Amino acid sequence: MDVITIEAQAFKELTAKINMIAKFVVSMQAQAEDEPAEDWVDNYDVCTFLKVSPRTLQRLRAANLVAYSRIRGKSFYKISKIKRLMDNNIIRRSEEHFQDLIKNHKLHIERNVEQKRNIKTNR
Q1: What are the tens digits of pLDDT across the range 9-64?
Q2: DSSP three-state, residue 71
């Protein structure tokens, strides 16, 4: 084991910077939890909770009306882009449908986190 010595002033500056970084990380996490708009949802969730067909989403993708990403053959959409479609009346659904989509997405994430915790504790 190596022992490293530094001046007290340098140590205080270092801990101040670490605390500043920690506060920034915590604030960004809180902001991300408040804004689900940057989260991604899959084709199934959008179809189920906004009550649109998979073909409708395919048409929107083909017409470049909605941005999406494809991972292993599965389409994912940012919630903010889905909201934009609703605001522009391209998809005509109520705010209640959109809130159901967000609520279901949060439940899905919580379930996945809980499953990962269970797997780690069982090891």
Answers
A1: 999 999 999 999 999 988 887 766 655 557 888 888 888 877 888 998 898 889 98
A2: strand
Q: Which residue has the tokens 């780690």?
A: 120
Provide the sign of the torsion angle of the four alpha carbons 88, 46, 93, 29, taken in this order: negative
pLDDT, tens digit, for every residue of 79-112? 888 888 888 877 777 777 777 777 777 777 777 7
- 40 SS3 class: strand
Residue 67's contacts (CB-CB under 8 Å, 6 or more residues apart) are 77, 78, 81
Q: How far apart are CA 16 and CA 10, in angstroms?
A: 10
H-type alpha helices, the chain: 8-34, 43-50, 54-62, 79-87, 95-122
- Angle (CA) 76-80-85 rounded to 5° is 90
Tokens of 39: 């989260």
SS3 assignment, position 90: coil
Question: What are the backbone angles phi and psi of residue 4, rounded to the nearest 5°?
Answer: -115, 130
